[in-house]
Specification:
The protein has helices at about 10-40, 50-60, 60-80, 90-140, 145-160, 250-315, 325-355, 370-380, 405-420, 480-490; strands at about 1-5, 165-170, 170-175, 190-195, 200-205, 220-230, 235-245, 365, 390-395, 400, 430-435, 440-445, 495-500, 505-510, 535. The chain is of the alpha+beta class. Strands 1-5-4-6-7-2-3 form a 7-stranded mixed beta sheet. Strands 13-14-12-11-9-15 form a 6-stranded mixed beta sheet. Helix 7 (about 325-355) crosses helix 10. The longest helix is centred in the middle third of the chain and has 65 residues, at about 250-315.
């Protein structure tokens, strides 16, 4: 059921306008009589124009026109002979009356139009400021839900409302009147009906049945207005505004503010929905890509050592062949080597999962870097090299504050990466020197093919491998250097890649140095690995 609300408050407004016109005419009439008696002015008709101008400025064009008509009749009644009648005998007086009437109407219209233009300008400024506040509030909030309360407060201030609340779905998300209790959803309220094209919207009164939940019925002195919140053809909820009946129907500016607020909220909610859908789609896409990369990498690197282990074990189990001791040792060594490869692969996968879960808890302590390097190289982290690793440590190298297990895994992974991609006969150098302030730089470089400059920033990404031809069976999983970055970051260091001095790839690892002092205990005895020049330790 629809009913126009344009006539809700016309009766009181008409009464007020009529009272203003009567008072203005009587006041100016009394003033004109006083002027005639005190100053002896023969014609006081122009004084009635003051009433016309005053009413035009205060109330607008049509009240001014009514005042001009009232002034015409009052002047005829009080000042034209015979007095106190509407009879006019002198033609000259007719001319004066007509001039008073015409001039009064023209002056009233001009003054009324000037007032209307001024009001329109002020209303436009107010609406523009409100629109800016609405847009700024939404644009500066990352989450639409946090912007709803400020938006409701803006609407309340701009529409002179007692209360504004925003309901998304069936629940109230923002309310400017919590002290008054939960807002009511009245059975009878006024909605904004939009029209297609350029046709103006209109307020219509609707009966929506029983108030939802029977909560907080609206008092008889208030009217509730509702604007639907929509976006992309979907209705998200409503903007509710409660105003006093004495304010009348919202004017054009107030209606624009309410409609703009509802539209912008609808757009923001639709944007949030699209963002959630896009995020879910991107997460799904990345998850599928991650699963594919993990399956491709791990399955390949698992199958290769497992096949080698099974082949070697099958050879040893052949009872018809009596293998010499030296060959049995070589076969067992190959099994151990492949098992160690599997162990490093599983370790890297576990470390990567801990890094992504944020569960790395390094046990930091000062350690001599030379002891750690000797231990890593001695364990055969870069096994199968036909040339030894060159280890060059500066003589003034301080202790480093690291996790002993983490730094061992870091160096092992970097050396393993150099062996894998530079080749078995490549020259590999591990060097360390002091940096300022309080840092130690460890560099592992080789003379292999290196990596193109454009891919250097991506070397530490999970599952990223530099595209190469003829990688062979040990093409890598693409997680070794990703684990390196995670472990180094956890220890407060930094790792980068660049083109090395030997012509291949260089990986720089910055580690925090231990503070100098007699109370600084290190994790092992300070036995320098090299003082001047490189010390070559065979890896095997």
């Amino acid at each position: 059921m629809f009913q126009s609300v344009a006539d809700f408050d016309r009766g009181p407004r008409r009464t007020a306008i009529s009272l203003i016109v009567v008072l203005a005419v009587l006041a100016i009439g009394g003033f004109a009589i006083a002027v005639l008696e005190a100053l002896g002015v023969p014609d006081a008709s122009p004084t009635f124009l003051l009433a016309v101008v005053a009413v035009a400025v205060l109330r607008g064009t049509w009240p001014a026109v009514l005042t001009a008509v009232g002034a015409f009749l009052a002047y005829d009644f009080f000042f034209i002979q015979p007095l106190y009648t509407f009879t006019v005998r002198d033609p000259e007086e007719w001319l004066n009356l007509l001039l008073l009437f015409v001039v009064g109407i023209v002056v009233g219209q001009l003054a009324g139009r000037s007032r209307a233009r001024a009001e329109a300008a002020l209303e436009g400024e107010r609406s523009a400021r409100a629109m800016f506040d609405l847009s700024y509030t939404l644009s500066t909030r990352h989450d639409t839900s946090t912007a709803l309360r400020p938006l409701a407060e803006i609407v309340q201030a701009q529409t002179k409302a007692d209360r504004v609340w925003i309901a998304v779905g069936e629940s109230v998300q923002a309310d400017t009147g919590w002290a008054a209790g939960p807002p009511g959803f009245p059975a009878v309220h006024v909605i904004l009906r939009r029209r297609p094209g350029e046709e103006p919207a209109e307020w219509v009164r609707v009966h929506a049945g029983q108030a939802r939940g029977g909560r907080n019925p609206i008092d008889a002195e208030s009217i509730v207005y509702r604007v639907a919140i929509t976006g992309a053809g979907q209705t998200f909820g409503s903007l509710w505004v409660r105003r006093r009946k004495s304010l009348g129907e919202p004017d054009v500016g107030e209606t624009q503010v309410m409609a703009a607020a509802a539209d912008q909220i609808g757009t923001a909610l639709e944007r949030d929905r699209l963002l959630r859908d896009a995020t879910a789609a991107e997460i799904s896409r990345r998850s599928e890509a991650l699963k594919s990369a993990l399956l491709d990498s791990v399955s390949h690197d698992l199958r290769t050592p497992l096949a080698s282990i099974r082949a070697a074990a099958g050879t040893l189990m052949d009872r018809e062949v009596d293998w010499p001791a030296e060959q049995r040792y070589a076969i067992a060594a190959s099994i151990d080597r492949e098992a160690e490869w599997l162990n490093r692969l599983v370790t890297n996968l576990l470390d990567m999962s801990r890094i992504e879960a944020g569960e790395l808890r390094p046990n930091l302590a000062p350690f001599e870097l030379g002891d750690i390097v000797r231990d890593v190289v001695g364990r055969g982290a870069a096994a199968n090299l036909e040339r030894p690793v060159e280890v060059v440590l500066a003589a003034d190298l301080p202790a480093v504050v690291v996790d002993e297990v983490f730094i061992g895994q870091v160096l092992a992974n970097v050396l393993d990466n150099a062996v894998k991609y530079a080749g078995q006969t490549a020259r590999i150098r591990l060097a360390a020197r002091r940096m300022e302030p309080a840092r130690v730089l460890v560099t592992v470089e080789d003379d292999g093919p290196g990596a193109p400059p454009e891919v250097l920033p991506r070397l530490f990404e999970k599952f990223y491998r530099v595209p190469r031809k003829g990688e062979g069976s040990r093409r890598g999983t693409g997680i070794g250097l990703a684990v390196v970055r995670g472990l180094v970051d956890a220890m407060g260091g930094q790792v980068t890649a660049r083109a090395g001095e030997l012509g291949g790839l260089a990986v720089d690892i910055e580690l925090p140095a231990a503070a100098a002092g007699p109370g600084n205990d290190v994790g092992s005895s300070p036995t320098p690995l090299a003082a001047e020049g490189p010390v070559k330790d065979p890896v095997a």
